Amino acid sequence: MKGAYLMNRIICIAMIATMSLWCISTSIAEVGVTDACQKDVKELEDDIDDNKDDYTAESRRKAKQHLMAAKTNRLNPAKCRSNILEAREELRKGKRDKKKKD
Q1: Which residues pair with 55 in a beta bridge?
Q2: What CA–CA distances, in Å, run from 94 to 24, 58, 87, 100?
């Protein structure tokens, strides 16, 4: 009886350790993806602020709305990435032609 109890206890501890390691590894992977997405959000916000004259006010406003949504979706990397793509699309739609200086 003691042998079976000890074996069950060892198996249970091994299962708990395996599940813990699996949870930790997926969490670390998500943090890396999320951080990359948030870095892209920051870079696009900086681009909008630095190049205000290149985009219409409406396109900047809509792009910033999408970027705000991306910030709130930091735990969902796919949705965060989708929000960034939507923001870039809004900026493309509102891109102003550069005037030639003669």
Answers
A1: 95
A2: 43, 7, 11, 18
Q: How many domains does the chain have?
A: 1
pLDDT tens-digit map of 37-95: 889 999 999 999 999 999 999 999 999 999 999 999 888 888 999 999 999 999 999 99
- Is residue 87 within 8 Å of residue 60, measured between CB atoms? no
Contact between 85 and 67 (Cβ < 8 Å): no
User: pTM for the complete prediction?
Assistant: 0.62
Distance between CA 1 and CA 6 in Å, rounded? 9
Range of the domain at 7: 2-93
Residues 56-67 have pLDDT tens digits of 999 999 999 999
Q: Amino acid identity, residue 72?
A: T
Task: Flag whether 10 is in a domain.
Answer: yes
